[in-house]
Amino acid sequence: MSQTGKNARAGDTGAEVGSTGRLNTTSCIPSGPKAQPLVGPRFERQVERLHNLGPRVVAELLSEIAHRTGQSGLIADRLQAYAALDPELVRAVGGDRFPPMPLTVIR
Asked: Which residues touch 3 (CB under 8 Å, ≥6 apart)?
C-alpha cells in the first residue's frame, strides 16, 4: 500500500506524517482558543519516557485527560483506531520511533 501526496495518513487515526517525518496529530484533536500543537523534541522525549513506564501509566494518563476534559468518547474512539494499527506495518514505515534529532552546527 503506497501513500502519495505531501502527508501520508496514518490509517484511520487522523494523524499525519509530514514531509519532515514528524507525526502531526493536531488534525484529529478538536481545536479551541487554548489549543496548542504538541510537537517538538521536548514533547517527543517526554512521550518516550512515558512509554518506557509501561501501559498502566499510559492508561492512567488517558483516564486523567478524559476525566479533566470530558472527552472520554473521543479518547476511546482514538484509542480504538490506534489499537487497530498493524504493529509490523507501523515498524516497517518507521512509525514506532521518532525521527532522529537534526544536528546543528554551532560556530
From this structure: 9
In whole angstroms, give the CA distance from residue 16 to residue 97.
Answer: 14
**Is 105 contained in some domain?**
no
Backbone φ and ψ for 17, nearest 5 degrees, come out as -105, 115
Indicate the residue type of 49: R
pLDDT tens for the chain, 107 residues: list them: 433 333 334 455 455 555 555 555 544 455 555 667 788 889 999 999 999 999 999 999 999 999 999 999 999 999 999 999 999 999 999 999 998 888 888 88
Q: Does residue 99 fall inside a structural domain?
A: no
pTM of the model: 0.61
Does the residue 102 lie in any domain? no
User: How many domains does the chain divide into?
Assistant: 1
Structural domain containing residue 24: 8-29+37-92
Task: Decide if 18 contacts 6 (C-beta within 8 A).
Answer: yes
